[in-house]
Design goal:
The complex is a heterodimer. Chain A contains 17 helices and no strands. Chain A is an all-alpha fold.
Chain lengths: ~300, ~300
């Protein structure tokens, strides 16, 4: 009733005012226009590096160095991708394909190892009672902030002693020993699963392993998927760690390949350089597009912890 | 009589069960315990010991006392220089990143259409590796053929030689870092979307201005997110490595010699493990002090009232 009356009372001029300036429930036309124009400009700025990379990647050699720059090459030289992926510059250097395979092995191992070891530890902290539990959990929390730079020198010495330098072992073994961030993330998720499930299973004589493997893991798919995606992007993009450990170029990962590109080609062929960059970032981009919501939710779980 | 035996038997059973539970629990946490001892705690302690030695991995280490540290504290050495570069970068880049990330989050939060698409666009750089991102910007910054200077030319500005100028190289890396604000933006966006509407309704009734609402409502309400982003941003900013390694190699004239770059060179180019350990430890202490300081200062401005 009251609402109808108010509606009737609003005159034409008020309606135009509402349309232009809006109110709390309805943003006005002017405000909307400003917001959209700003968004478009900013989006263009943020996408420019991607566009510049992509468009350079398909340029024929003679169109890279032209002033003013060519915004749309004719024709698109798609063969740049084939060239850069399959060319072996010299027998000492890997192809992108070889480097990609190296990276894939390290990444897949890293994802599986992280999922398994971190969830196991997280389960104990979420569901089991044991001596020194609180102290140990505090220990995990306190290592969250330890920067890699601090442990890389002594770790390097450890690898030297073990004879692991220039092998994939330092990049594949420590991953099986749980990472603090992921333990924390998974423990928080496990805590939200009702205890009734495992209590019922315990009465039926199930062991902790059964509960972990048959009840917790299947119920924790969202957090497992989020951790898996994060771990994939992390290991795929990791640079400093493999840079310290790997010496033989044929063992290089993709990030190392990219960082050494101009040294290997002995001149900077920007179209091939950008084609390589595009090939290297594509798996992460695809993964991100496919799992966006998981990804963003994962960030916000960590963001909300204080 | 009978009852006591039963109770004591039961207590013994419980005790052994408890012991068994603890044993099983330690099997579950064994991966972290072992990893902590061998790959983290052990190495950290080892590097503290090592920082009092001079060692190049080839000849046996020799004890040098605090020489590694006193060397670092001498004026005009590369450590002091790299500390200056890193601080300048962090002090400019981190606050600017927060302003941009928060502005983007506020823009996207204006009930726009295709929220997911905008969010994706601004988040995208965070998915790209530091190396790949640096390689792209290396090409963008090219003085003759790069896209930035050519766009500047269109509006009549002669583009500078970004990465090869002693005065601009660090700024070039700062500008590049502002492209990478996806993570803080997503954190701000989530904080904004969780704001209680009733406060704003009350403010509207009081006739509060947009700026007043932003300053007195939004900022205090999202202050925990600001703190989180500041702490995380500072920690990762101090460790910046891939960008200077790929784009400038620390130059020109060491103007982008970050702490991480310096540590890398000392430890892995010159194989000075003792000196490297000392630098790593000082870096650790600096990060620790900055983090604790940020958390302490937080009591003055971070608002936890809603929880």
């Amino acid at each position: 009733m009251a609402a109808q009356e108010t509606k009737m009372m609003i005159g034409t001029s008020n309606r135009i005012e509402l349309l232009l300036y809006g109110n709390r429930f309805r943003p006005g036309l002017i405000k909307q226009t400003v917001v959209y124009i700003t968004l478009f400009i900013l989006a263009a700025v943020f996408l420019l590096p991607f566009y510049w990379m992509a468009v350079t990647a398909v340029k024929p050699n003679d169109q890279i160095f032209s002033i003013p720059p060519i915004w749309l090459p004719t024709p698109f030289q798609w063969s740049n991708f084939v060239t850069v992926v399959t060319t072996q510059i010299s027998s000492n250097y890997p192809t992108v394909l070889q480097s990609g395979l190296n990276t894939l092995i390290i990444t897949v191992n890293g994802v599986i190892a992280t999922l398994f070891s971190s969830s196991l530890v997280a389960y104990a902290f979420a569901r089991m009672e044991f001596r020194a539990k609180n102290v140990l959990f505090l220990g995990i929390l306190s290592t969250l902030m330890v920067p890699f730079a601090v442990i890389m020198v002594p770790q390097f010495i450890l690898w030297t002693y073990l004879g692991w330098l220039d092998s994939y072992l330092p990049l594949m073994v420590p991953q099986w020993f749980a990472s603090p961030w992921n333990v924390f993330l998974m423990r928080q998720f496990f805590m939200t699963i009702p205890k009734e499930y495992d209590e019922a299973a315990l009465l039926d004589g199930a062991s902790h392993w059964d509960i972990y493997f048959r009840i917790m893991l299947p119920l924790s798919k969202p957090v497992l998927a989020a951790v898996a995606v994060f771990a994939f992007v992390f290991f795929w993009n990791d640079f400093l760690n493999p840079l310290i450990i790997l010496v033989t170029p044929t063992k290089f990962t993709l990030t190392m390949f990219l960082a050494n590109f101009s040294m290997m080609y002995q001149s900077t062929q920007w179209n091939l350089y950008m084609a390589a960059a595009l090939v290297i970032i594509t798996p992460c981009l695809i993964l991100f597009f496919l799992t966006q919501n998981l990804f963003l939710r994962g960030i916000n779980i960590t963001g909300r912890m204080k | 009589m009978a009852t006591t035996t039963i109770t004591s038997k039961r207590a013994g059973f419980l005790k052994s069960k408890k012991r068994r539970d603890t044993l099983i629990a330690f099997l579950f946490i064994a991966p972290w315990l072992i990893g902590f001892v061998f790959f983290m705690g052990g190495p950290i302690i080892a590097s503290l010991v090592l920082s009092f030695f001079s060692w190049n991995l080839l000849s046996p280490p020799s004890f040098v006392g605090v020489a590694n540290f006193s060397d670092l504290l001498k004026p005009n050495n590369l450590f002091a220089l790299s500390l200056g570069v890193t601080f300048r970068y962090v002090i400019i880049s981190i606050p600017l990143s927060q302003v941009i990330a928060l502005s983007l989050a506020i823009l996207i939060n204006q009930r726009v259409r295709f929220l997911g698409v905008w969010r994706t666009i601004f988040y995208l750089p965070a998915v790209v590796s530091g190396v790949a991102g640096s390689v792209i910007w290396l090409w963008m910054y090219d003085q003759q053929y790069g896209v930035i200077d050519n766009l500047l030319k269109v509006i009549g500005i002669a583009g500078p030689n970004w990465l090869f100028s002693k005065d601009l190289a660090l700024w070039s890396l700062i500008i590049k870092s502002l492209w990478n604000v996806g993570v803080p933006m997503v954190v701000y966006l989530a904080a904004l979307q969780g704001l209680p509407q009733m406060f704003y309704e009350a403010a509207d009734l009081d006739g509060a201005s947009e700026w007043g609402k932003f300053r007195n409502l939004t900022i205090p309400l999202i202050s925990p997110a600001i703190l989180f982003n500041l702490v995380i941003g500072t920690i990762s900013g101090i460790q910046t490595f891939a960008e200077p390694y790929v784009m400038t190699s620390g130059g020109p004239v060491n103007s982008t010699l970050f702490l991480g770059m310096h540590l890398y060179q000392v430890a892995f180019h010159y194989l000075q493990m003792g000196q490297g350990s000392a630098i790593a430890w000082l870096m650790f202490i600096i990060i620790l002090i900055l983090t604790v300081a940020q958390l302490r200062l937080a009591n003055r401005w971070v608002y936890y009232g809603s929880e």
